[in-house]
Amino acid sequence: MREATTKFGGRWLSIPRALWPKCVCLLPAKLARMSLHSNRKRRADAARTFNMKLPIHQIDAFTSEVFKGNYAAVVPLDSWLPVPLMQAIASENNLSETAFLTPNTSGGFDIRWFSPITEIAFCGHATLASAFVLFKRFPEREQIELHAAALGAFTVRRGPRDLIEMDFPQRGVEPVTAIPDELVRGLSIRPAEVFVTQQAFIALYDTEHDVRAVVPDLELIARLAPRDVVVTARGDQHDFVSRYFWPANGGKEDPVTGSIHAALAPLWSDRLGKAKLVALQASRRTGVLHCEVDGERVRVSGHAVQYLEGTIEVPGV
Q1: Residue-number span of the structural domain to which 78 is assigned
Q2: Do 190 and 207 reside in the same domain of the chain?
Q3: What confidence category does residue 21 fall into, taking pLDDT thresholds of 50, 70 and 90?
Q4: Same domain, 34 and 61
Q5: What's the rounded Cα separation, in Å, for the pair 314 and 160?
Q6: Which residue, of 41, 50, 51, 269, is most buried by count of CB atoms within 10 Å of its CB?
């Protein structure tokens, strides 16, 4: 017989006769090392394939009806995920924004917002959606403090008639004398006046009809990045109306943009001589925002309704 067989781990191994003396001592140790390496590899493979399960809510904000207002996903977390993973989740959701929440040491929550293509400094409708989710989770609380890097601390409250109120700092507005050519050519109707904020150019029109009739050239408007473009006018049935275009930062036309009303509300408050205003965002889905200017603060309120609640599975970290 030129070779022998031995069984190890359920497998039969063939051993040439010339190697028998060496194998008597070496084979068990070598096979043990092979088994240890195999176990380590299996554990590493298992770690790579581990998925985290995270809760997710999809909320329609600034509306009391599903399929209207602006949609946002809300993902409550115990601690922050890596930024590339949060961006990947937002891209997979492919909604206007995805908001992520983590509890902080002051008893409130830190909040971050991501569009499908980038992290956003401030998002009003996803904040309203987040407040809706938090008040469902904590029904005993009447107000919750949120914190964002660009805004600092601010408060969301339960309001009358099932409204949710957000208290934001005013966003400064400056007149523009030299209007960028991309803005003039990017809007099919020339605005009467133009203002600018850190977030967007504000194109002011004489009538609501003009705002509804504007056709944007999104390629030209994208060249105004990092700023977006909002068109606005006094409303026929609301105090003012607006539409919001943001091709460089997330999409074509935003259904409802809560954040820009921290600038629009003070602008129209000065022009109309009133502190409380009701605004309509005249997108295809439409949305209604209740605004109140109080010194250097702006309270923006709206309704919200849940469309979806579920679980997402993402790679473990």
Answers
A1: 52-164+304-315
A2: yes
A3: low
A4: no
A5: 38
A6: 269
Q: What mean pLDDT value characterizes the chain?
A: 89
CA distance 196 to 309: 38
Core vs surface per residue 56-76: b (16+ CB within 10 A) or e: bbbbbbbbeeeebbbbbbbbb
CA distances from 23 to 4, 10, 20, 30, 33 (A): 11, 18, 5, 9, 14
Helices (H), 72-180: 83-93, 124-137
Output the pTM of the full model.
Answer: 0.79
The pLDDT of 269-291, averaged and rounded, is: 97
Q: Is 97 a catalytic residue?
A: yes
Region 269-281 average pLDDT: 98
Backbone φ and ψ of 108, nearest 5°: -105, -150
Residue (of 122, 107, 73) closest to 260 by Cα position: 122
Specify whether 24 is located in the same domain as 95: no
Among 97, 142, 165, 182, the active-site one is 97
